[in-house]
Amino acid sequence: MGLNVLPDESLPASGGGQLQITMKLVILGLGNTILSDDGAGIYVVRKINERFSLDTSHQPLVTIKEASLGGFNFIDLLTGFDRAVIIDAVHTKSGKPGEYYELDPAALKPSARLSSLHGIDFATAVQMAHDMGVPFPKEIKIFVMEVEDEFTFGEKCTPKVEAAIKPMAEFVWKTLYNNGWIL
Fold first, then answer.
1. When you count CB atoms within 10 A of the terminal residue's CB, does the N or C end of the chain come out lower?
2. What is the pTM of this model?
3. What are the residue ranges spanned by the domains of the chain?
4. Contact at 8 Å (CB) between 114 and 124?
5. Sign of CA dihedral 64, 144, 153, 123
6. Taking each helix axis from N to C terminus, what angle separates 159-178 and 40-52, rounded to the nearest 10 degrees?
7. Nearest-5° angle of CA 81, CA 121, CA 170?
8. What does each C-alpha distance from 54 to 19, 68, 72, 182 come to in angstroms?
């Protein structure tokens, strides 16, 4: 089984352009594509899907998903996979729009107070899945892009975020390759 890769000298390849997937992997893009930059995670996942042309021979080993839901829904979205990649937008005080990086999931702390199961954060969802014995990914990578405007209604990202979508997709792919998540 292999993953067809479009020709590009900058990307690593093996087996004549075929990459081997070793475990059940989900790549999940989060966001809302009608709220300007908030859709960045979904746009990056779409670029990964387009750029690396997943074919049906990978199913069910690689699944690409999009979601505009969070909270308790994370458990349903990630159940049954060995590994998960989550791509989302973030807006921090010191971040510059279009910057992207990998977050350490261990640095995310579960919430001590729950007001609603719909409003739980990612770390709390992971902890709940573990506590309930749900078959949840043992390994999770989180990639985020700094955004400028995640509140304005519009189906286009701001220019700096738009310009970073393809480079971030390649960054995510290379990181997965370099860490042995895809071979």
1. N
2. 0.79
3. 3-178
4. yes
5. positive
6. 50
7. 55
8. 11, 22, 28, 13
Would you state the structure tokens that stand for residue 175, as one six-digit string?
């990181």
Q: Which of 76, 181, 170 is nearest to 139 (CA)?
A: 181
- Which two structure tokens, joined as six digits, stand for 57? 């021979």
Q: Which long-range contacts (CB under 8 A, 24 or more apart) does 12-15 make?
A: 12/174, 12/177, 12/178, 14/183
With CA atoms as reference, report the closest residue to 63 among 22, 112, 33, 26.
26
DSSP symbol at 68: S
pLDDT digits (tens, 9 = 90+) for 44-97: 999 998 866 655 454 457 888 999 987 778 888 889 999 999 999 999 899 999
Which token pair is 39? Answer: 């859709």
